[in-house]
Design brief:
mainly alpha, 78% helix, elongated
């Protein structure tokens, strides 16, 4: 057998095995769009919480109804981001000729879903108990843990993104008055940068 042919066969076998255990249909554009949704949501929250053009909270105007309104806005951002990710993932999987709902996808959902659900419930509890200043950055921590957990069955770059999200979240918790800005940096800017990087590396 020709050496080059043997190498090509081994490479094909390795790719098939990799696809069977790793979920590689995630789209870089999903990250870009999710980041854009997050920045829009952060801008809305900024107008509701801060004095125009400053970093000073309008504490006297912040009520429980305002916080629940912002939590609802965050849910809208989440729904848009997840819906976009699903649509683009399905399209990419079809282009690749692979099943988008396979064992790797189920493993990814389990690995990422557990810390995300826990983080979502904790965020609701924090807002309910009045610890709203640390609610936004705490979501970054759990999101980062979800990414780190899921990274073993998808692209290795997801682990780096997860670590950066955790660092931003922990920093934001230590600086509660600036939690929204850390949230915008984590869910907005990092997602956009990550999405462009993944698109250029794997999808061009």
């Amino acid at each position: 057998m020709d050496v080059h042919q043997a190498n090509d066969d081994l490479r094909s076998i390795r790719e098939i095995m990799e696809r069977s255990v790793r979920f590689i249909s995630l789209s870089g554009w999903a990250g870009v769009l999710a980041g854009s949704y997050a920045l829009a949501g952060a801008a809305y929250a900024y107008n509701r919480l801060y004095l125009p053009g400053s970093f000073h909270l309008r504490s006297e105007l912040i009520s429980m109804s305002t916080l629940w309104e912002l939590l609802f806005a965050a849910v809208i951002v989440l729904v848009l981001s997840v819906s976009t990710a699903i649509l683009l993932t399905v399209r990419k999987a079809r282009e690749q000729g692979v099943r988008y709902w396979n064992q790797a996808a189920r493993d990814l959902l389990y690995q990422a879903g557990t810390p995300l659900v826990a983080g979502g419930l904790l965020t609701i509890a924090l807002v309910w108990r009045g610890y709203w200043a640390v609610a936004a950055p705490s979501t970054l921590v759990f999101y980062g843990l979800a990414l780190f957990s899921a990274s073993r069955i998808t692209w290795k770059e997801v682990r780096t993104l997860g670590l950066l999200e955790i660092i931003l979240g922990l920093t934001g918790v230590m600086l509660p008055g600036y939690g929204l800005f850390f949230w915008a940096a984590g869910f907005g800017l990092l997602h956009i940068l990550y999405g462009f990087f993944m698109y250029r590396k794997y999808e061009r």
